[in-house]
Amino acid sequence: MAEILVNPQEAPLDSPVDVLVVGLPPDSRATITLTTGDRSSSAVFAADERGVVDLTRHAPLEGDYSGVDPMGLFWSLRRVAGEPGPTLLEVDGVGKVELQRLTVPEGVRRTVVDSDGLSGVLFEPDDGDTYPGVIVLGGSEGGLRELDAALLAGHGFTALALAYFGAPGVPDHLVDVPLEYFGRAVAYLSARAGEIGVLGGSRGGEAALLVGATFPEVRAVVSVVGSGVVTQGIGPGRNLLQVLQHEAASWTLKGEALPYLPCSVPDGLRADVVDDVPTSLARAFDLTDGVPEETVIPVERILGGVLLLSAGDDRSWPSTALSEIAKQRLDEHDHPFPYEHVVYPDAGHLIAGPPYRPTTDVLVPGPDVVFEMGGAPPATAAARADAWRRSLQFFSEQLGT
Question: What separation, in Å, do the N-terminal and C-terminal C-alpha atoms of the chain show?
Fold first, then answer.
């Protein structure tokens, strides 16, 4: 009798899953489908001479991904009509199994933070011990990165998902955000954790480097598709062109606006927006003549390690070039702490955050345009998994666990 074996059946979302189908007729075909209500993926496999399909060893004959990849069905999930629901793995003619993919691992406590003017959510192991602290910063979408922080806590960190715009209690727009706000977050976390690190993605990666360069308590920074250059703020506007042409500083320090690289609106970008075709926002960042020295983040002031992770086919902004500016500055100043810039050549912008989530959304709807993210989904999925692994290892080495 055929049977589906899933191990583990319940685990945090960033844990890989082994899937086997046993008891099939040798050399028969089996279609395996993964659904989450609003997404679906499938692939067809050939059972081996023992009547087994093993996703850790077998590549699909056809389907939504190719090659041997135990988590291929997970990252290749595509949007379908329907509402989010349980995660179900089904094999035609055999049955189905429900998987529990935990967004908050067992043994992790969640606490809303609204003191000291902060807007955040704290995740920590619920055992009373003291763990290294990590501040988690999202990108241009604003709001909170709770998932990232919750899963970090599952790996032995006290993680603060911190909103700095686009959430209650903080500015609506990424304009004139005081760096002192992040300093209060560092102080808050320092009172509850050991050594402090900062993890940021996209504009949060820019913020992470700034925070590390400003506050000496920070001992490690991971910037994912971030920037070693201070870039223009994200202000109000009825459409993308108005936002790009609204010149404003993202950050202030001691009441003074930090100099920034202004956005540009080349003819091709303007035409795409007007013609309502998918838009590569990376063209708004003109680096052809270099960047003003005063806009470069003084990353050499970070009193700890720096890990830069970027995507070679990033169409949201030129994260590889922007991160390399930080790497070069660290080189020039003989930074005494470990640092590295890792580039994933074929990956797109969406490499930040936990792995094994869909990478098929290469086009992301905005308020009035559709943005290109870039990257081939398999490459972005592999980069995301490696970036998460490197980030965990880096924080463990730099902060201790």
Answer: 46
Task: Kindly report the pTM of this predicted structure.
Answer: 0.97
Instruction: Round to whole Å and give the CA distance between 256 and 277.
Output: 38
| Digit-coded pLDDT (tens) for 251-272 | 999 999 999 999 999 999 999 9
The pair phi, psi for residue 101, each rounded to 5°, is: -100, 100
Neighbours of 273 (CB within 10 A): 18
- pLDDT tens figures, 171-224: 999 999 999 999 999 999 999 999 999 999 999 999 999 999 999 999 999 999
Look up tokens 């429900």; give the residue: 98
Q: What are phi and psi of 154, to 5 degrees?
A: -65, -15
Question: Could you tell me the two tokens for 44?
Answer: 């067809």
3-state SS record for the chain: CCEEEEECCEEECCCCCEEEEECCCCCCEEEEEEECCCEEEEEEEECCCCCCEECCCCCCCEECCCCCCCCHHHHCCEECCCCCCCEEEEECCCEEEEEEEECCCCCEEEEEECCCCCCEEEEEECCCCCCCEEEEECCCCCCCCHHHHHHHHHCCCEEEEECCCCCCCCCCCECCEEHHHHHHHHHHHHCCCCCEEEEEECHHHHHHHHHHHHCCCEEEEEEECCCCECECCECCCCCHHHHHCCCCCCEEECCEECCCECCCCCHHHHHHHHHCCCECHHHHCCCCCCCCHHHECCHHHCCCEEEEEEECCCCCCCHHHHHHHHHHHHHHCCCCCCEEEEEECCCCCCCCCCCCCCCCCCEEECCCCEEECCCCHHHHHHHHHHHHHHHHHHHHHHHCC
pLDDT at 366: 85
The model's confidence at residue 140, banded by pLDDT at 50, 70 and 90, is very high
